[in-house]
Batch of 2 targets.
Target 1
Amino acid sequence: MRFLLLLLCSMLCATACFAQDKIHGTVKDSTGKAVWFATVSLKKKAGNAIVAYTITDGNGAYKLMVPSGESLDSLLVEVRCIGYKSAAKSLAGQAPVDFELQVSVNQLQSVVVKTNRPVLRINGDTLNYKVSDFSNAQDRTIGDVIKKLPGITVATDGTILYNNKPISNLYIGGDNLLDDKYSIATNTIPQGVVDKVQVIQNDQPIKALQNKVMSDDVALNLTIKKGAKLQLVGQESVGAGLPDNYDVDLNAMMFKDKYKAINYLKGNNTGDDLQQELTAHNFTDYSQLIDNSAPATVLSSGAVNNPALSRDRYLFDQSALLNANNLVNLKNNVQLRINAWYFHDTQKEDYSQLNTIFLPGDTVRYNETQHNRFVPDVLHTQFTLNVNRDKYYLNDVLLMDNNRSVNYSNLNTNGAMVNQVFKDNALNFSNEFNLIKSLKSNNIIQAYFYISHSAEPENRSIGPNYNDTIFNKSVPYAQLLQNVNVPAWYTNNYLSFKIPANIITQSYRSGFSVQSQTLISNLDILQTNNSISPESDSSMNHLNWTRKKLYAEAAYDLPGTILKANLTLPVSLQQIDYSDSLYALNRHLSRLYFNPQLRIKYQTSLENYLTLLYNYRNQTGTIEDMYRGYILTDYRSLFANNADLTESRNQLAAIGFNYRKALTLFFASVNVLYNHLSSNNIASEVITNTLQQRVVLPFPNSTNSWTVSSTASKYSFALKTTFSGGLTWQNNSSVQIQNNTLLPFNTTTEAANISADTKVNDLVNFSYKATLTQTDSHSAVEASAFHIDQLLQQATVNYNPSDDIQFKLSGEHYFTRQQGNPDLKYFFADASAKFHIQKWKADLELSAANFLNVKTYNALYLSANTLTASSYTLPGRIILLKVFFNL
């Protein structure tokens, strides 16, 4: 009994001690919501020492054990949590110790991070370049800065590429002012008014289609500084110099949110080709979009290879360009836009060339000298109405063009003197209407209507007595007259229905197109008695052509974040009729074509992606492939056709990988493209020392090409330098029939380039670029092979000793080597000095272009079995004094 009483007392004491050593409770906020991960501490009242602690669980509950020997009266419980005010309670008995915390907003002390290193900022699909990070005092326009941005390259024609992909558009403050004629902006907008250059990947400008259909387009956007939005902007210059040179650039620009404009008047005779600013950089893509093969210019005054020089090195011009581009933003996302320009020029060319055509057992040579004067007049007007809302899109474009030109040519070919006058008058108009509407069901309907008309009367006179043994039975005559015109109508219309879903958007389209053309030509002889007679019975054409197409298409878009894909499955029923009563020609062709296309873009990581493309396309010839009567396209090319309509199948496959590390400013890309083209016809040429005659024969023919290209661009923070480089390998294999011999050709071109643009310090900037090109061509029939090496080096040094003085020195070195010919070496140098005059609020610049006075340039060109050695006359040294001032 005594043992049981002792055991019961011990158990009661232990229970009492255990209950006394355990503290528990809950922690909640003022709304009654449990507070997670709050720190609960058991502290001594005297000295504030922590004797135990724990963390609340997901229900806000906690448990604490009181260490042995500690009195509850001497302890308190404290709770702390980020975002709440701290709270503490003394212990009283064994009741739960619960807390209700009050929210506390803690203002962190501001931190300012300063750096002079360029930083690229990424926001979704948009990459931001700060213009001030890459510009220097000698950059006049935004185009000068874009050329130096890591990951961006600019081709010689002004085409902008981001990581080796051409951009689809250039926006100004988010607005499309210029379509793809963005050289107007890059050559005109002062770099000082632009805050950022933004690269927009996966650009989809139509709001109703965003996140519904795949887009892998890349566009640029120029954000304008706030101060520049509030006022008229203009960077004017007027210059004069020796010998009898002038250069004028007067412009006025506005970049408000509601109104944007680039209007200017430019003129010069210093070789600055203003017409290059009017280039439509994506014209080929647009022609495929509307599915129209507009008739090309048939005649020319001669085949002249442009020298591989900057155009301002060799161009003799007297040009003027009046350009007006205005956009108004109305309410409800309605835009009105007008783009209009008039261009006039007088260009001169003096050149000589030796064309050598290597044939099995024979060699044909053309030794020619030309003195040309070319006078173009170009008038363009375009009116655009655009409504771009989340569920509604309308775009209507009315376009009119009138391009007139006259080309005067004095020609000596193989010792025979010939005078040519070539007049060309191209007139066309078109209207494109596109309506897209999102329904209440979230489905999308689209209506598209396009119509165009074009005409281009061409006439060329050659004489006197040009090849009279061929054209006039050895009888002297005054002139040979060639006239051609191809008036054409075209319309394309379709309706489309899109069904967006969570993953895939289905699109179904059906429509029709009609192309109606007539090719009229005649080759006549103007006799010495002023009578006109046909050159022969086979020198006229009156070919009527109609192509009708009924098509349907199913497309499936996966506009995902990681994987984007588009599968297009078009089927078309095509009917072509062509006839010419002069040759008893009356043909009819009906075909059912299937032209699938697959595009894939896979985001391998946040910044890197892989692209895949496969395209199968059935194509037919055009009216210019079907005429039976001879046309003298230039003074030594007499062409006709004697085969059925050309039908070809084009297979294109491409794969590419784009790498980007924006934090370290590193960009790289690798692309591989294969193109196979097979057709049912082949061109056959008969080449003599006086003339080239060509007909099309009904024999199978195919060509293959491989292109492998890679680029890399890296900004070095330590050296303040952008390093860039690229490699390209291209192989083309084709077959030709020349002088009744089948000649397979294989041409390989290899190119490599490196460049560096460095900012040594605030006083000195330096840039360097080198491009090496190797071209090889050989034929299995012809034992000899041909090889040309070309090296181009360009360097520029800028020195700015003060804010008011700037010096610039630049040079270009050209080197060409071809076995059996002497090496060709040329060096061009330019220099300028600019002074800021505070009193005038203007800059004064003295420049010397080509100050070493190089006046001739020789070049070699290789194509298949034709080697061309050309010599060009250059303008020589130009000294110019210019005044720059701002509005």
Target 2
Amino acid sequence: MANGAPIEYASVALQDANGKGIKGVLTDSLGRFNFSGLPHGKYAVKVTSMGFILHQSAHFDLSIQRSKVHLGLLKLVEDAQTLNAVNISVQRKVIEQGLDKTVVNIENSILADGNNALELLERAPGVKVDEDGKISLKGRAGVNIMINGKLTFLSPAELSVMLKGTNASSISKIEILANPSAKYDAAGNAGMINIVMKKNQAKGWNGSVSANGGAGRKARYGSGFNLNYRNDGVNVFGSYNYAFRGETEYLDFTRNFYDSGTIAGLPNRVSDQHTKTNEPLNTHNFRVGMDWDINAHNILGLLVNGNVGKYLHDSKTGNLLRDQTGNLISALQTTNYDQQSWKNITYNLNYLHKFKKEGQTFSADADFASNSFTSNLNLDTYTLPNSINPAGVTNKRKGYIPAKTDVYIAKVDYADLFGISFKFETGLKSSLIYSDNNLVYQSLQNENWVYDATSSNHFKYREQIHAGYVNASEEFEKFSIQLGLRAEYTNTLGNQISTGSSLKRDYFQLFPNVVINKPFGEAHQLQLAYNKRIQRPDYSDLNPFRVFRDPLLYYEGNPYLKPELTQSVMFNYVYKGKYTASLNYSKTKDVITWITGQIDNINTTYESPQNLKNLINYGISFTGQTNYFKWWSATNFFNVFKNEYTGDGAIGNFSNSMWSYSFNSQNSFKAGKGYSFELNGYYNSKSVYGTAIEKGYYAISAAVQKMILKDKGSIKLLANDIFQGSQYRHITQYQNIDMKSHINVDSRRLMLSFSYRFGNSFQTRERKSSNEEEQNRVKGN
């Protein structure tokens, strides 16, 4: 253990009296290990783990009188380099890979500064972020995002905006869990990503300040601070970060229309649309909390998280419609001016009781989250003069879109350790979500604003989920196993106030989880895992209101969406804790996918979410952590996968499949005299999503850092997406849909940042909890 937290997948070697290695194992997720079937004699163990000093135990004897030996807690010391009499620094790898978890240590990445949380996820191994901010993992959509171990309960659009407003300087690490245990919510077909915010564990006063500035097509800058005070009984902490992000994007859509209703021959009409956007974003993130150690067995915590911001979507669109011979039919010029603002505040009260028996804990959490979002939209379209309208035509539309979501959560967890290897966990959780979205559209008619009943909609949504779980793990002589079962009851009610209609869903489901680990000597570890998970429709996807980009392109929800269910099997192999190979297979029923539709007679295109029949995903991935030289270390990730979509029902029968691959390389260099460098590159090949095909894209980024002010400060220079390879291109050819799109995002930028740490930064306090997750929950981590 390190500071009371278990170290998973540490290498443990059993030695004889002469120090010769006999056999080896890897510790499990709770830091436990076991050797059995040993002859009588004298032994010792040697424990090694990345980032820690080698631990050599004292010798112990096995005999008839003493056939079992419990070594107790073996505490590992972090591998530190003494810089002077006071300051100690610990350097972890940027990316750490385990059997079922990947950790990206943001605090150790030079490339992180000046980026936001969504941009950090783009560079994480196996993670893909599309142009709309939707996140997938190893080719599979349906990733649930947690902040400090807690679900956000935001719509994809709201989550994307929040992540764009979360500065990298406030993030400690990103954890990617491909196979979460039954203790976690069953939501998230592809797995879960946990974003862990910074929090100092040092005694006394300490903290840090940071600032950054730079530009892409527009200026970006930000600043923030973290403060922490800890004594033997109380820990008080807080942070604040401000960020401004200027951004300009270019979007091109080409749509072909066929009077026959099928794609054949030359199109009868062609629409060429070009959009230029101006999208400034201002965000304020704050966090304040307190932990009170009532006594050695009870801890009470209070935490408040806040995210407040404003976003402007100011775009100008030109849309030219031509006939089959190229003659101009109409020319539209549209201005879309959308002022958005939001406020997300979360309150958490938490309690942890540690019994006298080691490994026995009880914890409770109560959360309330208030999320409000407002959009004021003005859509003005001018049709240039033509033979029908010599003076041209002006259409004005405005929309007011207030959305409020309140989330109430209560949960309790109990854990117990029996003997030295059997761990039992159980818990209950209830969540209530209330969402109210009242979209009001008005159009200008005869100089008067008139309510547009065909586009407006008032939608209320209520969701309650009640869950319970049991989780047990045991280590046997030659393998270990974890069995989990989660039960969830879901009740939802969607009310369309405008039409008086409603839709209720009510269902109970079981979600099993099985993990079997098998070590082979000191260097090899195998894992077989199975789970069943669910992805419920988001309340915004269920809302049938329309959002217009221009009069000929809009998006709308679907109140009849069903939840999608996924069953997954994974086989993982780890060699020496550095090299990982993974085989995975999953099948998703009723997969929710955004589908493009077209109304040919009015030259209009729309997108809405639909349930497709199935998505089958399978592939293999490799991760290697290598030290090429003392001054050059790298983590390389390669994934090959195939997605197979099949559809039926409302969108007709179809199949769309393709082999794809992705590559990610993270390289760190030490140059001496306080200088270090970082180089990251990734490539996502051509792939399929529903009925669409996305072309490949890439990004190469580099950064340099110089330590200053006795190594308490640093200056970093970042160049992101140097060759501007992040270009999103899609092709959709299905039934009567024939469309191409090109989205040129503002990804290339140059940023300069400064950070400084102060106070008692290196005197850490030990925690004796045997469960790191519960400890982190109490600490708000």
